[in-house]
Design brief:
3-stranded antiparallel beta sheet; elongated; 20% helix; 2 helices; alpha+beta
């Protein structure tokens, strides 16, 4: 803690301004916007685009069987999947842009998209 005595008033001002800048930039960097649609892929290729403003249900055939995707109240989820571990079903409701549920054994994925993409640790 001896180094604290070496800081001058200008150094403290610079540290305070840096912390203020970081605190103010966090809300701006993590704004994701509103989710508009859900992209359903089968085998890595586009299968369907679902409008989140319209409730509905779609069955996606895959190598193991049928995966069922439901849209309700501007959110989407995988309701059923023939995969053994059910990770994509456990993912639950997806409502923010950038969220994704991947049913790897059946080669089906559902991704929520919007006008802006949210940032996460993988974006940097």
């Amino acid at each position: 803690m001896r180094w604290l005595g070496l800081l001058r008033p200008g150094d403290w001002l610079l540290v305070a301004l840096g912390l203020l800048f970081c605190a103010l930039s966090i809300p701006l960097a993590w704004q994701a916007g509103v989710a508009d649609k859900a992209i359903v892929r089968r085998g890595g290729e586009l299968f369907s685009e679902l409008d989140l403003s319209r409730n509905g249900r779609i069955d996606v055939p895959g190598p193991l069987g049928t995966t069922t995707v439901v849209v309700d109240k501007r959110r989407v989820r995988v309701v059923s999947d023939p995969g053994p571990r059910q990770y994509c079903v456990r993912q639950g409701w997806l409502a923010r842009p950038g969220e994704i549920a991947i049913c790897a054994p059946n080669q089906v994925s559902v991704e929520v998209q919007g006008s802006k993409r949210s940032y996460d640790s993988l974006s940097y």
